[in-house]
Design brief:
mainly beta, four-stranded antiparallel sheet, 451 residues
Length: 451
């Protein structure tokens, strides 16, 4: 694997906003990364962001799982549906354009931690191969240069997905131009690549990006959307991954975006997606392996425009966050018995720009969630729960240093320090991290080795 290298600062940095109900301050000194191999140089911030009071008006709450929303004959609903359809058409055109291009870089950093707690990041390069970097220390910082994965296939046309198996080994998946989902995995200090996953041909043409999850029994499952909107799944025959994959099974459904797989606190696999009408849909797998069938999540609005981001609260309740046509983020959470409740949209001070793309949330050590989002004007935004399990108690949105070109990816590194990775405007990977000494977020830092 590539050795660690120096990390440099991205120019044009803005000022961070604190969380954990601490004062919003900036870094007062230059901090160094935890790794002794990698030095992170940060410019001293020159201004502060003050907290904005919460709005005094209480927004109208959306219907919960026990209420019925009648949208028949509603002009606003039709308008939202039209806007969602237009957004979906634009996304399809963007995907087609990217796949036809030989130099388009991916828009998402796939991230997973291995059995030792070190993070691995994967990005689709302009040459249609996979690039990767890993934290040589648990962080913050400590990133090696981005480098081409050894043995990576050519002509890849999707963003990667990754999981860590029960032995702590990282495995990564992507779709190639031939319509196959291929996988690579750690093999000692190197990587091995197999052909297409599954012992059978896909029952249709795969589109978009695959999703992957590790079941509670240690077996990986891979999901892909077909051109007719249905979802297909294949799984490892054994947790070790050495006995091959099952045949593809079609789960049905009708998605406009990518299937997003998530393992909940009960060990069951949940798959979420966005329908062509802009609603949130889901299919649930029990520990026995059977599937519930696709259903619209209770009282879902019809103005969703991006792939959902599911995450568990401290109490195990799954919360799903998703971007809407209005440039806000809606959230829904399970309320037991298969029901869901939709909260008021995450709103706040005027950011001067709409939220676009898929958001990314992570849990802090005390259990409260924080979510990161990309703004249409190229800035990075975030909001956080004011307390653990605060499904209806979110802060106002604020901006952070960074200039994401793609969707952010947020996580807690092995040292318990939050980081947010994103692709920048010059095909570089940037990251912000929490300055524990200053109770603020760092300026953006560039991981060497552009993609």
């Amino acid at each position: 694997m590539a050795g660690a290298a120096a990390v440099v600062v991205a120019s044009g940095a803005a000022v961070g906003i604190g969380v954990l109900n601490k004062p919003h301050t900036t870094s007062s000194a230059i901090e160094k990364a935890a790794s002794t191999k990698t030095t992170v140089s940060l410019t001293t911030a020159s201004a502060t962001h003050s907290a904005t009071p919460k709005p005094t008006a209480t927004p109208t709450k959306k219907a919960n799982a026990n209420q019925t929303s009648n949208t028949s004959g509603s002009g606003s609903s039709n308008s939202s549906a039209d806007a969602a359809s237009a957004q979906q058409a634009a996304e399809k055109a963007q995907i087609a354009s990217a796949e036809a291009s030989s130099s388009a870089v991916g828009q998402h950093v796939a991230l997973v931690k291995n059995g030792s707690g070190s993070a691995y990041a994967f990005v689709l390069s302009g040459s249609r191969t996979l690039m990767y970097a890993y934290q040589s220390s648990t962080g913050p910082g400590g990133w090696t240069d981005f480098a081409t994965m050894p043995g990576t296939p050519s002509a890849l046309v999707s963003e990667p997905a990754a999981v860590t198996d029960q032995n702590g080994r990282v495995e990564v998946f992507a779709r190639n131009a031939s319509g196959q989902i291929v996988d690579g995995w750690q093999n000692g200090s190197s990587w091995s690549w197999d052909g297409a996953v599954s012992g059978t041909a896909l029952p249709g043409t795969p589109v978009g990006d695959p999703g992957a999850v590790l079941r509670s029994n240690g077996e990986a499952e891979v999901f892909t959307r077909l051109s007719n909107g249905q979802v297909a799944v294949t799984g490892q025959r054994a947790a070790s991954g050495t006995t091959g994959w099952s045949g593809w099974t079609v789960l049905g459904g009708d998605l406009a975006g990518n299937p997003v797989a998530y393992r909940d606190s009960n060990g069951d696999v949940d798959v979420f997606g966005r329908s062509p009408s802009g609603t949130l849909v889901a299919d649930f797998q029990t520990s026995g392996g059977s599937w519930s069938g696709w259903n619209t999540v209770s009282s879902s609005p019809n103005d969703l425009t991006a792939d959902p981001d599911p995450i568990a609260n401290q109490n195990g309740v799954v919360e799903v966050l998703v971007t809407t046509t209005s440039g806000n983020v809606d959230s829904a959470w399970g309320n037991g018995g298969g029901g869901w409740t939709w909260g008021i949209p995450l709103t706040g001070q005027d950011l001067g720009s709409a939220i676009v793309g898929t958001v990314s949330a992570f849990p802090w050590g005390d259990g409260h969630l924080e979510v990161f989002a990309r703004l249409a004007d190229g800035l990075l935004a975030h909001a956080w729960q004011n307390k653990p399990n605060g499904v209806q108690d979110w802060s106002l949105w604020g901006t952070l240093p960074g200039s994401p070109y793609g969707n952010p990816t947020a996580y807690m590194n092995g040292d318990g320090v939050p980081e947010a990775l994103m692709l920048g405007p010059s095909s570089e990977v940037q990251f912000d991290y929490w300055l524990t000494s200053g109770s603020a977020w760092s300026d953006p830092v560039i991981v060497p080795g552009g993609v």
